[in-house]
Amino acid sequence: MGNFNGKVVVVTGGTSGIGLATAQRFVEEGAHVFITGRRQNELDTAVKLIGERVTGVQGDISNLNDLDKLFETVRQEKGHLDILFANAGLGSILPLGHITEEQYQITFDVNVKGTLFTIQKALPLFPDQTGSIILTGSTASTIGDAGFSVYGGTKAALRQMARNWVTD
Ligand SMILES: NC(=O)c1ccc[n+]([C@@H]2O[C@H](COP(=O)([O-])OP(=O)(O)OC[C@H]3O[C@@H](n4cnc5c(N)ncnc54)[C@H](OP(=O)(O)O)[C@@H]3O)[C@@H](O)[C@H]2O)c1
User: Is the CB of 18 under 6 A from ligand 1?
Assistant: First the structure.
C-alpha cells in the first residue's frame, strides 16, 4: 500500500497511454480507480490489466448523459471522490487551409466541452470542497507548431479556463 490508501480516483481516458499508466500507479499506491473510455473492449482489457481496485465505466466525455452515468456509478459505489484526473483527450494534425469542420467539432467537443463538464459534474462528489482535480495540458497550448492550431487551441482554452475555475 502507499500514498493514496483508500482514496477514490476517477481517470478519464484511462484505457491507454498517460491515463492507463496513471491509473495503474494510483492503484499501486492504494487507491480505488474508476477508469473511462469510449471503446468497451479496450476498457475491459485495461480493467483486467490493472487487476484490482478498479472499476471500468464506458463512456464519451463529450456526452453529458455518459458523464452522469459515470458519476452516478462513483456515487453509488463509493459515495464520494477524492481525485479527478480529467485526462481524456484527442487531436489530429491539419495545417490552416486543410482544417475541416469535423476536426474542429470533435477536438473542441472532447477536449474543451468534455473536460469542462467532466469537472463540473464531478464537483458535488468532493467532500467539503477538498480533493484534487488534475487536467492534461500540452506544450501545444503555448508554442506554435505547424498543423497543431486546433489541438493547441483546445489545450490553451483548458489552461485559461482552469485559471478561472480556481477563483470560482
Ligand atoms: N501523447 C502525447 O504526446 C501527449 C502530449 C501532450 C498531451 N497529451 C494529452 O494527454 C492525454 C492522454 O493522451 P495519450 O497520449 O495518453 O492518448 P491515448 O493513448 O490515445 O489515450 C487517450 C485515452 O482517452 C480516451 N478517450 C479519447 N477520447 C475520449 C472521449 N471522448 N471520451 C472518453 N475517453 C476518451 C481513449 O479511449 P477511447 O479511444 O476508447 O475513448 C484513451 O483511453 C490527452 O488529453 C492528450 O491530449 C498527450
Answer: yes
Cα–Cα distance, 129 to 148 (Å, whole number): 36
Element (H, E) at 100: none
* pLDDT tens figures, 29-50: 999 999 999 999 999 999 999 9
Band (127; pLDDT cuts 50, 70, 90): confident
- What is the layout of strands, in order, in the sheet containing 32-37? 54-58, 32-37, 8-11, 83-86, 132-135
How many angstroms is it from 88 CA to the middle of ligand 1?
5
Domains and CATH numbers, the chain: 8-167 (3.40.50.720)
CA 128 / ligand 1 centre spacing (Å): 30
List of residues 6+ apart from 106 with CB closer than 8 A: 62, 90
Would residue 151 show up in a list of annotated catalytic residues for this protein? yes
Q: Name the active-site residue from 151, 152, 155, 158.
A: 151
